[in-house]
Inverse folding.
């Protein structure tokens, strides 16, 4: 099952990169399931799982009576398609004149079946039971982050009884469950606020925001997946970029 999860995740990542690099024309036809099955030597179920991830990310959509089409690529695609593609450093920092006073809301915790995107990141079957933890973070009484953490339920038994609104979360998980976070992979996507995000962050629907997708690991084992929506009025993203022709360290 793990091999299957890795396969559809690999196919998803290949197709996602192709979409973001404009291999497929916006609103143009996307390859059919049969064509992708032949290309990747994969089963129909594996291809459908990969396509579901692309749909969840709103990179493709199915139109009845027409087929699957490519939606407008994310504004972040300029990084992948630009000649300036080596990102040397990336960090968020507060855009504030006054010292930052951080506060975190009470956590909302529930158990849900994991969706395709989080399942692929965690390398588990879709539908596996996971804990979902949702928080709001404010700086100087302005809500700036809407955070969702997803952790396999078997790794953190009775989490809802033990969390007690502890933050930072990673320190709590290390001390209570022995989960040691050694590294992480994070993707940043510029988005526009939907209704839910607008309500949580107290902004207008359609406001430009940042969305962060992070997979955290203990060595090579994924143990947590998170989605964070950030208000750029409070946070700025800074990038240090080198030309593609230059190798890191030169």
């Amino acid at each position: 099952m793990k091999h299957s999860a890795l396969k559809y995740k690999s196919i998803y990542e290949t197709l996602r990169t192709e979409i973001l690099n404009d291999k497929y024309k916006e609103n143009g036809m996307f390859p059919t399931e049969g064509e992708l099955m032949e290309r990747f030597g994969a089963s129909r179920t594996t291809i459908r799982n990969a396509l579901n991830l692309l749909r969840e990310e709103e990179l493709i959509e199915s139109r009845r009576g027409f087929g699957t089409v490519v939606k407008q690529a994310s504004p972040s695609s300029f990084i992948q398609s630009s000649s300036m593609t080596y990102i040397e450093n990336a960090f968020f920092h507060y855009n504030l004149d006054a010292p930052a006073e951080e506060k975190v809301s009470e956590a909302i915790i529930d158990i849900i079946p994991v969706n395709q995107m989080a399942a692929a990141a965690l390398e588990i079957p879709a539908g596996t039971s996971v804990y979902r933890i949702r928080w709001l973070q404010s700086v100087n009484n302005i809500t700036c982050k809407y955070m969702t953490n997803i952790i396999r339920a078997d790794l953190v038994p009775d989490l809802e009884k033990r969390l007690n609104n502890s933050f930072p979360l990673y320190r709590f998980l290390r001390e209570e469950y022995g989960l040691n976070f050694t590294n992480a992979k994070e993707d940043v996507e510029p988005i526009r606020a939907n209704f839910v995000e607008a309500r949580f962050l107290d902004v207008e629907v359609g406001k430009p925001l940042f969305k962060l997708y992070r997979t955290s690991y203990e060595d090579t084992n994924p143990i947590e997946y998170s989605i964070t929506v950030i208000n750029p009025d409070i946070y700025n993203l800074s990038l240090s970029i080198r030309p593609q022709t230059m190798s890191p360290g030169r």
About this structure: Residues 74-84, 246-250 have pLDDT under 50 and may be disordered. The longest strand covers residues 129-139. Residues 20 and 92 are 23 Å apart (CA to CA). The helical segments are 2-20, 33-40, 44-56, 77-81, 116-122, 159-162, 169-177, 195-201.
